[in-house]
Design a protein that fits this description.
The chain is mainly β. It has helices at residues 76-86, 111-117, 177-186, and strands at 2-8, 17-19, 21-25, 28-29, 35-38, 44-45, 58-60, 66-68, 71-72, 91-94, 106-110, 128-131, 145-148, 151-160, 189-198, 200-203, 208-211. The longest helix has 11 residues, at 76-86.
Length: 217
């Protein structure tokens, strides 16, 4: 089993960036979801209600600052695009508290489960995709640990999926049947909520090992 893909989403609810390596820190992948979209009253707006946000790409620049479609995240052009996607009162703001994550800082998916899912794995918005995993083996990993190099990741439980899986990551066209299928075939859950127990840098191709007992860490 090895690291097949790594993903980071510098701007929450926008398309992310595929990485060759990722630095895992206590609150997940460094630079992940450090800018969010807000609306009236300071409430967080996401692609669950505003899927046009998925049509914009958030990246982390060489200086560590997020960009949107190649522009500084706080530029006037980006602000206009965000209002067009999420309403006249929408705006971007930097926030690095752990509350920026819906559940836990990491989402771990597997190639076996994505193959069973039968659709683009980007719909699941994972941070880590593991390769060489047979079928739905991930369903037996709740409460286990994932060791990749010096990093140790806690696997809490399976992720309950939401309406975001119904939007095509490239066209943003919606297919409600996707979520119905996840409910019917997978009990509404795919991939694993996870956190960083021990920080470290991980790379595509690194060997990954599921460890059942904390004594094996």
């Amino acid at each position: 089993m090895n690291v097949l893909e790594l993903w980071r989403y510098p701007v929450k609810s926008m398309a992310g960036e595929r990485l060759a390596e990722a630095r895992l820190v206590p609150d997940g992948v460094a630079g992940d979801r450090i800018v969010q979209v807000y609306g009236a009253g300071g409430r967080v707006l996401t692609a669950r209600k505003y899927p046009k946000l998925l049509g914009h790409h958030g990246l982390l620049g060489p200086d560590g600052r997020p960009t949107v479609d190649g522009r500084a995240w706080d530029s006037p052009g980006v602000a206009a695009d965000v209002r067009a996607a999420a309403g006249a009162e929408a705006y971007l703001e930097s926030f690095t508290g752990v509350e920026r994550f819906d559940i836990l800082p990491l989402l771990v998916a597997t190639d076996g489960a994505i193959a069973e899912f039968g659709r683009d794995g980007r719909r699941l918005r994972p941070n880590i995709i593991l390769g060489g995993v047979p079928g739905m083996a991930e369903r037996n990993w709740e409460g286990s640990w994932l060791r990749i190099g010096d990093a140790l990741i806690g696997l809490q439980d399976l992720r309950g999926r939401c309406v975001m899986t119904t939007y095509d990551p490239d066209t943003q066209e919606q297919d409600p049947g996707v979520l119905r299928d996840i409910v019917q075939r997978f009990g509404g859950k795919l991939a694993l909520n996870a956190w960083v127990e021990r920080p470290g840098t991980i790379r595509v191709g690194d060997v990954a090992e599921v460890v059942e007992s904390p004594k094996e860490r």
